[in-house]
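User: For my dataset I need records formatted as: sequence, then structure tokens, nothing else. Please produce one.
Assistant:
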Amino acid sequence: MNFLPPRRKHLNTTLKTAIAAITLAGMTGTAMANDTQLQFSVESNATRSISSAATAFERGDYAKSVSFSKYALKQGLKKSRKTAALSNLCAALGVQAQYDDAMEACNKALELKPDNWRALSNRAVLHSLTGNEEQARTDMQAAIVLAADEPKLAQNQKILG
């Protein structure tokens, strides 16, 4: 399940937080695809904490996903796994409307590995949520070049136009 909070420019922070909390409380544990909202992507790989972060995200427990991702980053990971943890952190923070911290995590992931399609896709979602549609489309197109067969990317591209 993926849920995205409202765009920053339309609601103040307090209202956004309240809407996200109410919606997440009602949707936790419900698996549903939403064809009208951009979706963050998470990665699961060989480390337990990164896999746990991805599982928590998919279950809608975004705070736990953040905790697992931050724990993973303290473990002295190889570059490929560190980029996965950062990209997952980006997604989990982004879905909680912590846009600045989420953007920082995505940018760090892309500094380490510029061809990380999940980080590019997640950054595209963040750009869209913060009103930067042109940069959102640019990042999404770059992600699609790297992983053209990913259904989530195709859906996000369709929404971005």
